[in-house]
């Protein structure tokens, strides 16, 4: 049952839209000792009322039937009431849940091209968390020049230099979902050291630390690494501990695409746990997986290590995408040494016959000391989905094996030829995981979800390349395939891990729950119908079953169709200087986690 006095108290500690709420507050204070909303004068209207739905509030507990009322950008009441609303949504028979958080989003460029973020909006995503290893700032002049020439299908002028500047530019432009970002450790490294295989001296490391602090003060949620891609892969553990320490003392996380996810998966997990322990920052694993058939059995040991670390008091958590294939590039097939100095240097080296022969030998060598995802997928298990060059786009959707056979060359030769011809890493889908493991992972109580993809639409510039089905189906698949069909987890638990748990892990203020005083990020869906339709052969298919999405009180999806309204804002971490109690502290210990 809703209590107005209680709800108003809940609002007080937060930054609220006072202008909108003061009239309501005055009315509540003037009314009788146990005011009910139906007693309010009819002139008081909610902006949105979602009525009669089954409310999964994010706590993981049993749902209850009730109404959710929104004024401005906040939920103001949860319970049963009759007050008038400008917009009434009948949610009878449907689930009402806090908006879903995409823990690993690559919507950084797609939102510039199309701010609506439809492939995610149609699944109930209300927050895109970006910054897997590299981030859209801070960038110096040299980085801006390189980023500009390396742009793919989506071309855009770079008008910002800092990470905060990028996020604000997105908000100003107009976006459907909320956005947040880690600062990429690779980005801080490149800013100071360039893209070579070098280590920072103490002064350089100090400069990198300061870039992390600056981004955290601008609202970054932590520091992100992606340790299989050059130049991020050149960072050694001590360097990462230093940067994670800065993130931790600014109230943020250390999040990582680990150095190893296949043969040396356990070494990857150990390094992440060590970095979290030494830095004090909570550790989060991006897209946890056991890659390669020979490594599927290692998932148990990986889970055991994570759970042992958690039991020892460390905050270690993970997210995943709900598919057996990953998607990356041919850079994830080749040794890091050949990629030193950046993409142009990499391609120049591949043109040298002796270097080429050495690279091919290493790609084929199971003992080569780097993470080679291609070797685990094989040429048959490698589908090409994104080319930069118009002339190569007709190859989209073909396997590497098929193309190599047509050309009468080895798959490794074909791969190198394509990287040179395209002037890019070429985007590919690698089949790497087991369905059993994916299902088991969805059931883990500390597992959240991330698409590892852009937020797209089957139109415009997005038709120039293909994609992985996770871009259109990752979250609906949790609710349809894994909750309803396979019963790997319950619906209340799924909502907790799609919304409340990620919000908690990220240290977000007043998000992730259906609760009075919280930001009005709300999704309405039909649990009996929600599901994904995107496939590897035909990935550009929206999920269905989500009917309404509200972002910061803005109704963005209604009756399953986008309204065109863009309510997305920048969501900032605890170290943001704009908070009254923001800014960085002496150590991670000064924060409660
Ligand atoms: Zn990754």
Helix content: 25-40%
Unreliable spans are: 1-43
CATH architecture descriptor of the domain at 100-324 and 434-513? Alpha-Beta Barrel
**Ions, cofactors and other bound molecules:** zinc ion
Major sheet, described briefly? 9 strands, mixed
CATH class of the domain at 100-324 and 434-513: Alpha Beta
Structural class: alpha/beta
Number of distinct beta strands:
21
Q: Classify the fold: give the CATH topology of the domain at 100-324 and 434-513.
A: TIM Barrel
Average pLDDT score: 93
What is the CA–CA distance across the termini? 30 Å
Tell me the fraction of residues in β-strands, as a range: 15-25%
Shape: globular
Radius of gyration: 24 Å
CATH H-level superfamily title of the domain at 100-324 and 434-513: Metal-dependent hydrolases
Number of helices: 19
Please render the helix and strand layout as text.
Layout lengths: L3 H8 L6 H13 L14 E11 L8 E8 L2 E6 L4 E7 L4 E4 L1 E3 L7 H4 L4 H4 L3 E6 L10 H10 L12 H11 L4 E4 L1 E2 H9 L8 H16 L4 E5 L10 H13 L3 E5 L7 H15 L3 E3 L13 H13 L4 E5 L4 E5 L13 H8 L2 H12 L8 H5 L4 E5 L13 H8 L3 H12 L4 E5 L3 H8 L4 E3 L20 H16 L5 H16 L15 E4 L20 E6 L2 E5 L2 E2 L31
Parallel strand pairs: 1-4, 1-5, 6-7, 7-8, 9-10, 10-11, 11-12, 12-13, 13-17
Antiparallel strand pairs: 1-2, 2-3, 5-18, 14-16, 15-16, 18-19, 19-20, 20-21
Helix pairs in contact: 7-8, 8-9, 9-10, 10-11, 15-16
This protein binds zinc ion.
Zinc ion binds next to loops.
């Amino acid at each position: 049952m809703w209590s107005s006095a209680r709800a108003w108290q809940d609002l007080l500690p937060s930054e609220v839209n006072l202008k909108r709420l003061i009239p309501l507050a005055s009315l509540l204070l003037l009314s009788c000792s146990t005011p009910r909303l139906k007693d309010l004068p009819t002139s008081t209207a909610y902006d949105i009322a979602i009525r009669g739905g089954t409310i999964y509030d994010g706590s993981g507990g049993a749902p209850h039937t009730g109404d959710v009322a929104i004024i401005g950008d906040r939920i103001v009441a949860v319970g049963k009431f009759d007050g008038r609303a400008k917009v009434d949504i009948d949610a009878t028979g449907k689930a009402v849940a806090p908006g879903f958080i995409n823990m690993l989003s690559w919507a950084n460029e797609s939102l510039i091209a199309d701010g609506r973020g439809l492939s995610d909006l149609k699944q109930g995503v209300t927050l895109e968390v970006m910054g897997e290893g590299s981030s859209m700032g801070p960038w110096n002049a040299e980085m801006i020049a390189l980023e500009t020439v390396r742009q793919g299908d989506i071309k855009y002028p770079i008008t910002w230099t800092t990470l905060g500047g990028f996020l604000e530019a997105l908000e100003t432009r107009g976006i459907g979902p909320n956005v947040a970002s880690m600062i990429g450790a690779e980005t801080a490294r490149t800013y100071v050291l360039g893209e070579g295989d070098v280590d920072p001296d103490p002064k350089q490391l100090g400069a990198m630390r300061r870039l992390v602090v600056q981004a955290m003060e601008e609202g970054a949620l932590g520091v992100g690494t992606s340790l299989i891609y050059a130049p991020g892969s050149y960072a050694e553990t001590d360097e990462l501990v230093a940067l994670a320490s800065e993130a931790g003392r600014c109230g943020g996380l250390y999040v990582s695409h680990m150095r190893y996810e296949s043969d040396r998966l356990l070494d990857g997990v150990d390094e992440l746990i060590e970095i979290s322990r030494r830095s004090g920052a909570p550790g989060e694993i991006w897209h946890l997986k056991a890659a390669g058939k020979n490594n599927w059995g290692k998932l148990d040991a990986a889970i055991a290590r994570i759970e042992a670390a958690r039991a020892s008091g460390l905050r270690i958590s993970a997210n995943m995408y709900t598919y057996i294939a990953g998607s990356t590039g041919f850079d994830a097939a080749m040794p890091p040494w050949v990629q030193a100095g950046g993409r142009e240097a990499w391609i120049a080296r591949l043109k040298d016959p002796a270097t080429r022969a050495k690279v091919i030998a290493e790609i084929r060598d199971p003992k080569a000391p780097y993470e080679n995802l291609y070797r685990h997928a094989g040429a048959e298990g490698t589908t090409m989905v994104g080319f930069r060059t118009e002339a190569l786009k007709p190859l989209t959707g073909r396997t590497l094996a098929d193309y190599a056979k047509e050309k009468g060359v080895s798959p490794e030769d074909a791969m190198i030829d394509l990287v040179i011809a395209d002037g890019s890493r070429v985007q590919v889908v690698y089949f790497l995981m087991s369905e059993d493991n994916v299902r088991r992972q969805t059931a883990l109580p500390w597992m959240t979800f991330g698409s590892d993809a852009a937020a797209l639409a089957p139109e415009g510039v997005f038709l120039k390349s293909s994609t992985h089905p996770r871009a259109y189906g990752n979250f609906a698949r949790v609710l349809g395939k894994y909750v309803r069909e396979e019963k790997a987890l319950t619906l209340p638990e799924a909502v907790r891990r799609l919304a409340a748990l990620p919000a908690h892990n990220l240290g977000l203020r007043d998000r992730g729950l259906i609760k009075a005083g919280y930001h009005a990020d709300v999704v309405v869906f039909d649990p009996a119908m929600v599901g994904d339709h995107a496939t590897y052969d035909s990935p550009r298919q929206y999920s269905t079953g989500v009917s309404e999405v509200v972002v910061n009180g803005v109704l963005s999806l209604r009756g399953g169709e986008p309204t065109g309204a863009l309510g997305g804002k920048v969501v900032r971490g605890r170290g943001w200087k704009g908070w009254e109690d923001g800014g960085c502290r002496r150590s991670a210990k000064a924060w409660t986690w």
